[in-house]
Specification:
about 200 residues, mainly alpha, 9 helices
């Protein structure tokens, strides 16, 4: 059994899982921002919410698998302590620490979303806003540490995703500022209902 894991091409698997996790989480965050735009129909918002949840949860799961494979890797193996404790890694402690913090952050956001009906709305919203610094940490971890960032196509994926999150955030702020107060209240009510 041990030989099976030892003979796995762990290094390419780690790289692939890392990029896949980042892309899914970035798309999930983009959909989460789009969800709050007021022009969607109730049915469209429900579909966006489902896809947003699927991508963020799946992306987090793939990211956790990405971390586990670093422990069984023979090229640059991590200890469990290096994997679980932020900034404890001997290799690139800061950049690896940011990736670990991003993983913990995503787990907190996902778990508190499942408990949103038991939390105060403001508290849940503040926790959910932490998705932005989590995304920044995931971006820095992947872009600056990932071996595949040397490839122009992968580098473009990172840059386009970061620009997309930034532009959508600016657009949402502009739309929310321009929207009448009554519409914002109705949108908030509809959003809360979909999560139930």
């Amino acid at each position: 059994m041990n030989s099976f894991f030892v003979n796995l091409p762990t290094w390419p698997i780690i790289r692939t899982l890392g990029v896949a996790s980042y892309v899914m989480i970035a798309l999930g965050i983009c959909l989460g921002i789009l969800y709050s735009f007021p022009q969607w129909s109730r049915e469209s918002k429900a579909d966006i919410y489902k896809l947003h949840s699927f991508l963020t949860i799946s992306g987090t799961a793939v990211g956790l698998l990405h971390g586990v494979f670093t422990v069984i890797d023979t090229y640059m193996p991590f200890s469990w302590m290096e994997l679980l404790v932020p900034f404890a890694a001997q290799n690139h402690p800061v950049l690896n620490g940011l990736g670990i913090l991003a993983a913990y952050g995503m787990l907190i956001v996902i778990l508190t979303t499942d408990l949103r009906n038991k939390l105060k709305k403001k508290l849940w919203f503040l926790i959910h806003l932490s998705s932005y610094p989590i995304f920044v940490m995931a971006f820095l971890h992947g872009y600056l540490l990932g071996t595949d960032t040397q490839l122009p196509a992968i580098r473009l994926v990172y840059i386009v995703s970061a620009v997309a999150v930034l532009l959508l955030t600016i657009a949402r702020a502009f739309v929310r500022r321009s929207a009448p107060k009554k519409s914002k209240a109705q949108a908030g009510s509809r959003g809360a209902n979909i999560g139930r």
